[in-house]
Structure formats: C-alpha cells, structure tokens
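Researcher: Next sequence.
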Amino acid sequence: MSRFEQLRLNWLERFLDGLDRASLNRNGEPAHLATGRRGERAAYFYLRRRGFIVTARGWRTSRARGDLDLVAWEKDVLCFIEVKTRTTRAIAPAEAAVDADKKRMLRKMAHYHLRQLPTRDVPIRFDILSIYFEAGKSADFELFRGAFGWE
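Model: Next structure:
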C-alpha cells in the first residue's frame, strides 16, 4: 500500500470516528449496537491496511436472514469475515459468539453471495475478526483466518 493510500485511509478513519462521536446517542441507538457498528468500521480499515480488498460491507439478500459483515479478497482467496466487537475480555472471547447457528447462517449467506459471481470456482475462507475496545487501551484486533469451513 502506498504512503498516499495509507494517509488517505488514516484521514478517512479519523473523520468517520469524529462523525460518530458527534452523533453519539443522538439517535437513541443502544450502546451495544454503536459498539458493533464502530467495530465493523474499524475492521474495514484494519483489513485494508493488511492488503485485503473489501468488496462488500453488511451484505444482505432477501433469500435468507442475517448479513455478511465483510466480504474481501486476500490475494486470490475470497474471505467471508464475521466481525465481533467487545469492550471487555472479562466474560468470554469475542470469537466465542460465533456458534453453530451463526456458522450455519454465514454459510448460507456465503452460498447466496457466491451465486452472484461470474465464476463460483474460487477458493473461499471463513474468518472471524475479534476486536476489543477496552477503556484506556488502543483497539486490539485478532484475525482468525479459516476459523471454520463449509462443514
């Protein structure tokens, strides 16, 4: 990634964070939803800085419930990335929230997403990105590549 691209991403991320802070709780959004939205935005920038090409955010279809948080290419692999954000590690790791039902829903959504591609013969991977926004610390990211498969 070029220095210019890096600066552009940094500026855009700071700008969006500022807008978020300015509108905090003005729309009555519950704190956990605001945390999740903040995490998904931070995940986008984290992945972009690591060379991922993000092609979809919050992808939905009318054929199934739920959404794909992020869909991105890492080199020649199409990645379906579930983002889990927490403000503490005290209860359970964020990635533990991706249970069997959630995996089933993500697989179904991925299936519908793949049907839109011109070719379905691409390597795919299901990743989980855990993000922790703990008070007094900088954000901590843990990317679990290939966290689960089609089975």
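Model: The chain has one domain: 3-148. Residues 3-148 form a domain with the Trna Endonuclease; Chain: A, domain 1 fold (CATH 3.40.1350.10).
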